[in-house]
Design goal:
Layout lengths: L11 E7 L3 H12 L1 H8 L2 E8 L15 E2 L2 H6 L3 E6 L7 H10 L3 E4 L2 H18 L3 E2 L11 H7 L5 E7 L2 H13 L3 H10 L8 H4 L2 H15 L9 E2 L7 H9 L2 E11 L5 E12 L11 E8 L3 E8 L3 H21 L13 E2 L6 E11 L4 H11 L4 E7 L4 E8 L2 E2 H11 L5 E10 L2
Parallel strand pairs: 1-2, 1-4, 2-3, 4-5, 5-6, 8-10, 10-13, 10-18
Antiparallel strand pairs: 7-9, 7-11, 9-10, 11-12, 14-16, 14-17, 14-18, 15-16
Bound molecules: NADPH dihydro-nicotinamide-adenine-dinucleotide phosphate (NDP) and L-homoserine.
Length: about 425
Amino acid sequence: MATDGAGMRTDTLKIALLGCGTVGAEVARRLDAHGPELTARAGAQLELAGIAVRDPSRRRTGLDPALFTADGAALVGRPDVEIVIELIGGIEPARSLLLAAMARGASVVTANKALLATHGPQLYEAAEKHGVDLYFEASVAGAIPLLRPLRESLAGDRIRRMLGIVNGTTNFILTRMDETGADFATALAEATALGYAEADPTADVAGHDAAAKAAILASLAFHTRIRVGDVYREGITAVSADDVASARDMGNVIKMLAICELSADEQAVSVRVHPAMIPRTHPLAGVREAFNAVFVEADAAGQLMFYGRGAGGAPTASAVLGDIVAVARHRVGQGRGVGESAYAQLAIRSIGECVTHYYVHLDVTDKAGVLAQVAAVFAANGVSISTVRQDGHGAEASLVIVTHSATEAALAATVENLRGIDAVREISSVLRVER
Ligand code: NDP
Ligand code: HSE
């Protein structure tokens, strides 16, 4: 390593890029276009040494074809490469390539939430063992500076709860359903046509993407290890146009939320992702289309909200490039950034123990005594009713019930018992209501 009289590096800091798709191509182009600025900020010349892709023969506009290779292992094995950026996605070969890079002493930057939420501890341990940085700001909420505030700015505070909209595709779909009255299938088709949803939208609409992001957020906020398997998950495919209309009638809106909570005794956390009604007056209710936002409640800071674009090439590249500059600065200064903080070792609360309010929509036979029967089932399970509304005439009616706070286990038992009442023709919807 060459240095000047003041100890600053005068040699070049070489970067390997793994993946050159939506995000990778934007990172590569911006590294090239903004090289002098980034170099000035990092304190060393940054140079893209190579790019690994699946198909190196494909032309990529504005990028030198000589940089491309299909051999990711050889690229990360180059002794002159000091920073490896992983933008392939998925578990393998991303995991093996990052581990190989760190074992050789390179620092790594990734946007891969699926990998971090599954193998985060292994990656952190490798970073610690080899004395390198593992940065991943882009893995949750794209462009929004969120993970560094959790890891650094709020390291002196105690976070109690986080409520986030962390998936742009589902927020776009629910926004369309709310604003146009569209059903789920129509809104999904629009999200696909606009390029928000993938050809296979399962990871988004079934909540896998949000669950991985929730695991990363909860691990950082509560200083404990949470894997994606610890996260309770429900998608939005069952949310109907009727549910959205009911929410509107009640002054609420349905959002796909990631909810991370510290228990009152501070010994456990619960992490869940599912659709939920929130009041239209809540700051998250105004987060429209494909935007993301995370609402944080901390002891000293009070309430904070982080808002911005959670996906897309340029917004995600912004977070990746910020990590590159941070990691490069550490290499120049021969230091490291923050590593894992998982000392708390908190227990994971099961979904049955979580407490919230519920909206239950029942189709019933409209005859004397039915409401009393239904109310008795709620009471027998210790679930207190807040409001009841009856719609419809003649033999058929619907009951819309909103409860006071209750455990998921008590609500599940209530729903099970309601199925046993002859006059209850169908339980058409059960949704959580977050206050
Ligand atoms: P893309 O699918 O657009 O790009 C993936 C890239 O990886 C392609 O260039 C592909 O090569 C390359 N690739 C695939 N397999 C291999 C392999 N075995 N070896 C080397 N290269 C390979 O993904 P995105 O850019 O959308 O996402 C990248 C990462 O960023 C993911 O982890 C994703 O979750 C995350 N992310 C994405 C966001 C977004 O808005 N897209 C937002 C936030 C995070 P080729 O081009 O030849 O096919
Ligand atoms: N599919 C994700 C979303 C991309 O819709 O938010 C960003 O992680």
